[in-house]
Specification:
This protein is of the alpha/beta class. The chain is 31% helix and 27% strand.
Length: 473
C-alpha cells in the first residue's frame, strides 16, 4: 500500500488549497472529493451567487438608465435564466482552473466519499490509503429548521435557489444573514416581492448594529420588506406555495410566498467520517482544533467550516495552508479569527474586519470611533452612490485600529486595505497620514481614521448636531 504524507478529505476552499500548498512543499498528497473540487463555495455558493449579483447590478443600472442619459431603457426586459446560465459558465471555468492546478502540482484526486479507517488510514469505496497525516475539510450545509424541511420546490436552500431559472414572484427568506440579504437583493432586482424574516434585532446581526439598521432602511426603500426581531413559528404549504407564520413586535402575521428560502446558518458535514471511532473530539458537531488546526488525535487535522471557527471560504483556505505548513515544519502565527475580513455582496455591500464598537468594549478596550459618510466622498458622489459610511474603532491608549466597518456601493473594494491595516496593527494616525489617491473610495478610510482623532477634513462640524458630510473638492 502506497504511503501518503497528507490525505485531505474534502475538496472545497480549505481542502484544495491545502492540497496545492502541501504539494508545493514536497509532500506526497491525495485529495478526496465526493463531487467536484471547489466544494460548496465554488460550485453552489460564493462564485455562482456573485455572478448572479453582478447580473443584478447590471439590471439595476439599466433600470436607472434615464439617470445616465440612456434612452429607451423603460421597455427593456430582463431574463433571470440568462443570469443562471452565466453563473454556471463562471463555475465551470473556475472549477476547471482548480482541477488544472491540482494536476499541475501533482496532487492525486480521488472521487468518492472518504472516511477514517484507523490510525493513519483513509477508506474511499473499496480502496484504503495509508497517510501520515489526515486533514478533514468536509465543510457544511444549510441548517434545516424542524417542520421546515426543504422539498426543493417551495421550501428551498441556497443550492436550489442557484439553479432556479426564474426569479420567484413572491419570496420569503428566513434569515437575514449574508446569504439571506444577498438573495433578497438579487431577486428584488429582477422584480420579486421579497420579505426577509430575521429573529435578531437587525439584518446581518454579526455586523455593527448601525450597518444592519442602514441596510434595512435601504432595502425597505426598494420595497424589500424586512421583519427583524421576528420569529418564524411555522411554515404552512398552500396551493399557491407557502404561508410563513411569524410573531414579533407587531404581533402574529402570515406572510405568503411561492418560495421560502432557508438561510439560517450551516451545520457541519461530519456524519460518516468515522470521527467517533477515531476518538476525534467534536462540540455540537463541529470538530475541535487548536491554533495549528490539530485535533486531539495526533496526525489528524481539520480546517474550514467543519471546525465552526469562522465559516468563510478565505478563512478555510488560510487554515488549510497553516495546517500543511505545520506538517512540513513551518510555523506561522496562529490565526486571529477576530481580524479576518468579512464581506456581504448585496447592494449596498457590507464589509468589515475586527471588533465592533460593542465587542471592543466587551473585550476590555477603551475605544473611540471615527465615522465618515459617503455623502461627503467625491468618488461616491461622482458615481451616484452616496448611501453608506465607513466607521473605524480605535483603541484609545495606543491608537491602534481595532475594527473597520463599512456599508456602501462596492465598498468591499476597501477590504484589501482594511486587512493590511489589521495585519500591520496600524494606528488611526498612520492611516490618516497615508496619502490616498483622489478621487477614490479608499479616501473614506483615511477620513474615518482622521475623524477618530477629531481631524476629518471633509466633515462639517456642528455643535449639538450630528456630523454631516461636505462633498470633497
Amino acid at each position: 500500500m502506497a504511503q501518503w504524507d497528507v490525505a485531505i478529505v474534502g475538496g472545497g476552499p480549505g481542502g484544495y488549497v491545502a492540497a496545492i500548498r502541501a504539494a508545493q512543499l514536497g509532500l506526497k498528497t491525495v485529495l478526496f472529493e465526493k463531487e467536484r473540487v471547489g466544494g460548496l463555495c465554488l460550485n453552489w455558493g460564493c462564485i455562482p451567487s456573485k455572478a448572479i449579483l453582478k447580473n443584478a447590478d447590471v439590471v439595476n443600472a439599466v433600470r436607472e438608465g434615464t439617470k445616465w442619459g440612456l434612452r429607451g431603457a423603460e421597455g427593456v426586459s430582463f431574463d433571470f435564466g440568462a443570469a443562471i446560465d452565466r453563473s454556471r459558465e463562471v463555475v465551470e471555468k473556475i472549477v476547471g482552473g482548480v482541477e488544472l492546478l491540482l494536476r499541475d502540482n501533482g496532487v492525486e484526486v480521488v472521487t468518492g466519499e472518504a472516511s477514517l479507517a484507523g490510525q493513519g488510514q483513509v477508506r474511499c469505496g473499496d480502496r484504503q490509503f495509508a497517510a501520515r497525516n489526515v486533514v478533514i475539510a468536509t465543510g457544511a450545509s444549510t441548517r434545516v429548521l424542524p417542520g421546515m424541511e426543504p422539498d426543493g420546490e417551495v421550501v428551498i436552500t441556497s443550492r436550489e435557489a442557484l439553479a432556479r431559472r426564474e426569479a420567484p414572484q413572491r419570496a420569503v427568506i428566513i434569515g437575514g444573514g449574508p446569504v439571506g440579504v444577498e438573495f433578497a437583493h438579487a431577486w428584488a432586482s429582477y422584480g420579486s416581492e421579497v420579505t426577509v424574516v430575521e429573529l435578531l434585532p437587525t439584518l446581518l446581526p454579526q455586523e455593527d448594529p448601525e450597518i444592519g439598521r442602514l441596510l434595512k432602511r435601504s432595502f425597505e426603500a426598494r420595497g424589500i420588506r424586512c421583519l427583524t426581531g421576528t420569529k418564524v413559528e411555522r411554515v404552512e404549504r398552500t396551493s399557491a406555495g407557502a404561508a410563513v407564520h411569524v410573531s414579533g413586535g407587531d404581533g402574529e402575521q402570515r406572510v405568503e410566498g411561492d418560495v421560502v428560502l432557508l438561510a439560517v446558518g450551516f451545520v457541519p458535514h461530519t456524519g460518516g467520517l468515522g470521527l467517533e471511532a477515531a476518538g476525534v473530539d467534536t462540540h455540537r458537531g463541529f470538530i475541535e482544533i487548536d491554533g495549528r488546526m490539530r485535533t486531539n488525535v495526533p496526525g489528524i487535522f481539520a480546517v474550514g467550516d467543519v471546525t465552526g471557527k469562522l465559516m468563510l471560504a478565505h478563512v478555510a483556505s488560510q487554515q488549510g495552508v497553516l495546517a500543511v505548513e505545520h506538517i512540513a515544519g513551518i510555523e506561522r502565527p496562529e490565526p486571529d479569527y477576530v481580524q479576518m475580513p468579512r464581506a456581504t455582496f448585496c447592494q449596498p455591500q457590507v464589509g468589515s474586519i475586527g471588533y465592533t464598537e460593542q465587542a471592543a468594549h466587551e473585550a476590555g478596550y477603551t475605544v473611540r470611533t471615527g465615522r465618515f459618510p459617503l455623502t461627503a466622498l467625491g468618488k461616491a458622489v461622482a458615481a451616484g452612490h452616496t448611501e453608506g459610511f465607513v466607521k473605524v474603532v480605535v483603541d484609545e491608549p495606543t491608537g491602534q485600529v481595532l475594527g473597520i466597518h463599512m456599508i456602501g456601493h462596492d465598498i468591499n473594494d476597501l477590504l484589501g486595505e482594511a486587512t493590511m491595516i489589521a495585519v500591520l496593527e496600524a494606528t488611526s494616525v498612520e492611516v490618516g497620514f497615508a496619502v490616498h489617491a483622489h478621487p477614490t473610495l479608499p479616501e473614506a478610510l483615511k477620513e474615518a481614521a482622521l475623524a477618530a482623532d477629531g481631524e476629518a477634513i471633509h466633515v462639517v462640524r456642528r455643535r449639538a448636531a450630528p456630523q454631516e458630510g461636505a462633498v470633497t473638492r
